[in-house]
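Dear colleagues,

As part of the handover before I leave the project, I'm documenting each prediction I ran so the next person doesn't have to rerun anything. This entry is a single chain, and its sequence is reproduced below.
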Amino acid sequence: MDTATFRACLPVAPADAKPIFLTGATGYIGGRLARWLLDRGWRVRAAVRSPEKLVGRSWTHHPGLSVVVVDLANRQTLAQAMDGCGTAYYLVHSMLVAGSDFHARDHVLAEVFAQAAADAALERIIYLGGLGETGPGLSEHLASRRSVEEALGAGKVPLTALRAGVILGSGSASFEILRYLVERLPAMVTPRWVATECQPIAVRNVLHVLVACLTTPASVGATLDLGGPEVLSYRELMQTMAAALGLRPRIILSVPVLTPRLSSWWIHLVTPIDHRLARPLAEGLRNRVVCRDQRANELMPQPLLNVREAIDLALRRKAVGDVETSWSDAGPMPGDPQWSGGTVFSDRRTRTTTASATAVFRAISLVGGDHGWYATDLLWYVRGVLDRWIGGPGLRRGRRDAVRLLPGDAVDFWRVTAVEIDRRLELSAEMRLPGEARLEWTIIDLGDQREVIQHARFRPRGLGGLLYWYAVLPLHALVFPRLLAGALKAAEKSGDGVAGR
């Protein structure tokens, strides 16, 4: 059963249903849940920090959607944003800024959210947390998820607490870590957690429960574990992935000396996942994540995909470029660095072309990922490797969509910060740099020709930033002219893109 048909099996929203207050709409689960809710007739009020990240999504212009910009730490404005809603989804966490204070920050934000929900007289909060055994042995990540659950549940508004472990779906962090490790390493040394049992669940099954519980009164105030039909070790999960990829069984040797910190850096170097995200995930792998019961499926029955089916579906989605949301969507949009004032270095290049603005924009929008950067790809590769080794995203992060770019999308070690179709594209650097960098293309229509301006800017931070700029200046002289020339050559070659054809 395809996803659309599967989604259509859910009941539609009652005619008198109040709007849904959805946090995390720009994230992995929330970005998919919004579409599922809208498809079933629910009105959705998406609470976001960066509304630009919603531009271009398939459901952005749905008549049932409204968008509000909120600060989750401000109880008063949050309650005002919730006014008139019935149910709120709490789908936010701070894994990408994991550190000494992320546990406390998540707990405080959950307390404020519960208080604001009470102020707005909401009927229910639905929270997707982490599956795992309770007790003092919980990882910091799972302990934080449980703390958030307790903070939300301590408020006056009833809480539906859903707990899931490994979520398998195209673009999920768990899936990408698993796929890259298995693809790249025919033999691997792992911590002892490779023998830990888990109960993976397909992302479509998680979304089904998130929507179905809205019309399931028995789920109000309940804590429900979410898992697929199989319990297996992480070793067995890796071997299942290998079989799905058509690879030989992996050689897996477990040792007791790999700490979560070392494991997270190993994941960082081998996969596209940032070490800040990998560490809480790696720490959580030591905990057994198996459902205590099957009440969720008894209350909201659905066909559960087994592990192989979930992996096959995710691989097919990725193969055809149909990845709706990705782990790399998370995180705030970089703000305006205020380029006026101070030292700002610039590399500005201008060329004209007979290709149409549409063709030029399309060619520029192909940069990064498997397509590459038109020329000097070896230099880009070396820069990516160096960035990965010093803790940056490198080039492995790629891009979610091979053709189209949306605000907030990751492009290798860049983030899309502005998109004006056929006019302008701007990328902000997320590689490790002693300063701030942006790369921008602007297309100006001159009638018979288009003027294309490629503008790279760098604001250095301290002496290190100054030294960095002058060190890479000779490479810029090789990379940037070829990048612009390659994009325009591709635009001019596109048969339907040249003006007048």
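The longest strand covers residues 435-445. Residues 96-100, 497-501 have pLDDT under 50 and may be disordered.

All the best with the project,
I.
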